[in-house]
## 1
Amino acid sequence: MDGSTHFSVFLLVAIILHCSSSKTVNATCYASEKQALMDFKKDLKDPHGRLSSWIHDVDCCKWEGVVCSNRSGRVIQLHLQSPDPEIYVVAEGDEFFWSLRSLRYLDLSGAGFQGMVPYQLGNLSSLRTLSIGGHRFDLQVDNLQWLAGLSNLEHLDMSGVDLSTASNWLEVINTIPSLVEIHLSSCQLDLSSHHLGRDTFVFHANFSSLTVLDLSRNFLGHLIPRWIFGLTALASLDLSENWFEGPLSRDLWNLTSLKYLDLSFNHLNGSLPNELIHLNNLISLNLQENHLNGPIPSTVGNCTKLEYLSLNDNALSGSIPSNLGKLSSLQLWNVSHNKLTGTLPKSLGQLFKLEELIIFDNLMEGVVSESHLDNLTALRYFDASGNSLTLKVSASWTPRVQFEVLGLSSWKLGPQFPTWIRSQKFLQYLNLSFTGILDTIPPWFFNSSLDIVDLSHNQIHGKSSIAILS
Ligand SMILES: *[C@@H]1O[C@H](CO)[C@@H](O)[C@H](O)[C@H]1NC(C)=O
Ligand SMILES: *[C@@H]1O[C@H](CO)[C@@H](O)[C@H](O)[C@H]1NC(C)=O
Ligand SMILES: *[C@@H]1O[C@H](CO)[C@@H](O)[C@H](O)[C@H]1NC(C)=O
Ligand SMILES: *[C@@H]1O[C@H](CO)[C@@H](O)[C@H](O)[C@H]1NC(C)=O
Ligand SMILES: *[C@@H]1O[C@H](CO)[C@@H](O)[C@H](O)[C@H]1NC(C)=O
Ligand SMILES: *[C@@H]1O[C@H](CO)[C@@H](O)[C@H](O)[C@H]1NC(C)=O
Ligand SMILES: *[C@@H]1O[C@H](CO)[C@@H](O)[C@H](O)[C@H]1NC(C)=O
Ligand SMILES: *[C@@H]1O[C@H](CO)[C@@H](O)[C@H](O)[C@H]1NC(C)=O
Ligand SMILES: *[C@@H]1O[C@H](CO)[C@@H](O)[C@H](O)[C@H]1NC(C)=O
Ligand SMILES: *[C@@H]1O[C@H](CO)[C@@H](O)[C@H](O)[C@H]1NC(C)=O
Ligand SMILES: CC(=O)N[C@H]1CO[C@H](CO)[C@@H](O)[C@@H]1O
């Protein structure tokens, strides 16, 4: 786009105003800025009257979604983001961007902009936050050079914007060392065809204060670009849904500040090494849907801040390390669809905060007793179907745990119908198929809160041999 041509791209803007309660008390707005906003409004369709407070007689610092600086009176924030992409307004403007040079915060996310992102945004040199992400690929940028004008930028979110032809995105971003957060999810970034090509391995990232990096749903090549591992301040890294393959890079263990790591839905293989111990600030680790194999390293138990651990849909083998019982903050553990063997370690009984334990479709066998389950008082979702475990509990067992979802398909439970189910007041889903029950259904069972029951492939006689009630 020629910088000298009059800017005439149509912008479709959906507007819901998130009004800030923190209005300035004394600031009155600048006439030029009020005029720019009035002109902007003129070009908007606002069927729901969300800009009804934008009237000439009112100080524009008091308008919905507008925040002025208390000191200078300049408009510094515009909150025009929309959670509802169905509402559209149309804008066209150039003066708008030029007049609001003091703007520090611009959030138009989900607002349904359409066409080329206006390069005039680069004139808003005071911006600290720029959020223009969309949910569709209605917006694109063919050259991101203008972004270099935002030399104070800290938070950048262009998720959902088509950057497939903006081949300079990485170099441009690298001229802004003030960046703290980058969200470029679903931008059709393709580093494999990038002219840096293999050189992304020697590329040095200048934005060394970065704490949040989201490059999920792109194609950054088959190996995680090495420069990412140099960002040692990172607290959150999302590289899910790329096409990374091969083993986890040793350099990953340099990112010791990480709290959130998401490498799910890639093609990573090899084992989860002991070096996981270095990431002991992790709160959430998501490695689901990869090709990881080998045992779960016992050092996972040293990552004691973990609350969410998703390892499902890999090829992990061996038994569950007893160290896992040290994850006293763990709330969710999903390791379904793997090749784990052995039984549940007793130490699992120490996971007082565990709410969801999902281990279905593994190769586990052995005995599970009361003591495994009695301390898991927070547990409400337990799906362990598709294992050959044996539940051995006394006939009088009244578990303290109250399940909502309980899947024990293919466990050895029979021949008696398990009486302890009677204590379950909130059970909605129960799967006891293939469990060797040879009994009648006790009458109390029909009084339960259950929505879905699977008792198929047992020898249940009497009242009816129902398979699924719902
Ligand atoms: C302006 O001052 C008010 C009152 O002290 C405060 O609540 C508000 O956060 C300030 N606004 C900005 C943008 O700093
Ligand atoms: C508003 O202006 C008055 C008079 O100048 C001053 O006394 C008061 O502290 C100001 N209030 C704020 C919140 O700045
Ligand atoms: C990165 O930083 C170095 C040193 O601060 C500087 O020389 C270089 O020009 C910067 N690179 C870019 C692309 O701005
Ligand atoms: C990770 O740390 C090791 C050891 O300190 C170092 O040799 C390596 O270069 C670092 N990797 C990156 C990508 O910075
Ligand atoms: C891991 O994947 C790479 C690339 O897809 C392949 O060459 C290698 O043989 C795989 N290694 C293992 C242990 O599966
Ligand atoms: C990791 O956990 C093991 C087993 O509890 C313990 O002996 C070891 O000291 C821990 N290592 C670190 C670095 O905390
Ligand atoms: C657990 O993993 C299964 C796939 O194996 C997936 O369908 C399910 O959504 C996951 N549940 C949670 C809560 O992560
Ligand atoms: C259950 O909790 C009690 C009290 O905290 C503790 O003494 C016991 O060892 C725990 N049982 C298991 C199997 O962890
Ligand atoms: C089922 O519930 C009803 C009403 O709460 C109660 O009267 C009846 O005794 C219960 N039947 C069984 C078998 O528990
Ligand atoms: C019960 O578990 C088996 C084995 O995992 C599964 O095939 C079946 O669909 C489940 N039944 C229901 C109702 O979810
Ligand atoms: C007044 C001003 O600085 N306008 C600039 C806005 O941005 C475009 C594109 O970067 C420049 O060409 C203008 O000079």
## 2
Amino acid sequence: MAVLAINGGEKVREKLFPAYNTIGIEEEEAVIRVLGSGKLSNFLGTWHSDFYGGKEVQALEEEWAACFGARHAIAVNSATSGLYAAVGACGISPGDEVIVSPYTMSASATAALVYGAIPVFADIEPEFFCLDPHSVESRITSKTKAIIVVDIFGLPYDADAINTIARRHGLFVIEDCAQAPGAKYQGRFAGTLGDIGVYSLNYHKHIHCGEGGVIVTDDDQLAWRLRLIRNHAEAVLDAKGIKRPEELVNMVGFNYRMTELEASVARCQLKKLDGFVAERQKNVAYLAKELAQIPCIEPAVVRPDSTHVYYVHPLLFDKNIAGISRGLFAKAVRAELAPTELREKEGVQLGCGYVKPLYLQPIYQHRIAFGSNGYPFNLAQNNLNYEKGLCPVTEQLHFETLMTHEFMRPPATKEDLDDVIRAFWKVWGHRDELCGQEA
Ligand SMILES: *Cc1c(COP(=O)(O)O)cnc(C)c1O
């Protein structure tokens, strides 16, 4: 008689996990207030006092800057827009090289492509999964202009080492902190560790307003250029007397503007961030302690002098100890559990790896991004390498050892977490039932 649910046994848990929904009455009231005002957005794309947006947008920016200890905060309509604006503001030009992690959401790398720059992928740290300073250094050439670091899963990058390398070579550091709002590195907030930081406010993140993002920087000049790019730069240059050729670089603007509705929601959400982060950390502490007892599972460690805010919780799986593959183990654990309410279609929140290393995506494999003639890859002056094997640590983690889950999201209770722990133990205890099966 089969015991494991995957073989027809009884599940550990049939009931859905509670909905992950950070929106409450405060957000509802804020949206009603904005709707009542009739001003759903208050940006004007020419030189005018409304160039900087409406009341809610400007209030969000002030509150965000104060909360994270940044000189400037610039609200945008997504972190993707924020990353694009950041690359533009740094003056990156076609043919330049930008070093980036391959283990991140795809926009961290396309930010380079949209300005005609070449993403150069460096490997990640085996224990923390952020860019590895040694690998970064080995990828620097005379064409390198910037490093896009990613605080992946909610842990800040190795800022001491990477910032030192960047300073030595005169490179910008753009910090993609979409997954790490509230995380700290030596007492400073993720997002404020490089030259420019970019937070996300999309539906999946710690706090959200549907879609949105916030850029922070301490540099007045970068902040000004970010605000120009956000709102049709080209249309205000004349009025601002900006006309010297070197001032026009990347001053083709976009509409990356956030509406008053989203800003009003984001302001409420920001007030709740600390509470959500504390809950995630408490839940992970409990899960990690319990799951660490299972011989084939090793919860990831946190960088010294840093805090992790757990956008996802990484676990390392040892197939030699388990005697079965990671894929099969995860599939069996998923079969024991239920999806999350409101997100039933996403299935049980346990996965193998995160995203396929970005250089294996078709656009890099075929070097086709804009148009059909290979731009911007055809501008590369150095050997372009997007071959399998380029980042062995990333590939080993992704294809063999890393598991990620999101069971720690609020409002998970101890009972919910206990079901998860029971499911892992059950699969461990009955893994001989799985021998010979396919993942
Ligand atoms: C979510 C995410 C983004 C993109 O955020 P959007 O607001 O959806 O554009 C970028 N980078 C990372 C690492 C992310 O997790």
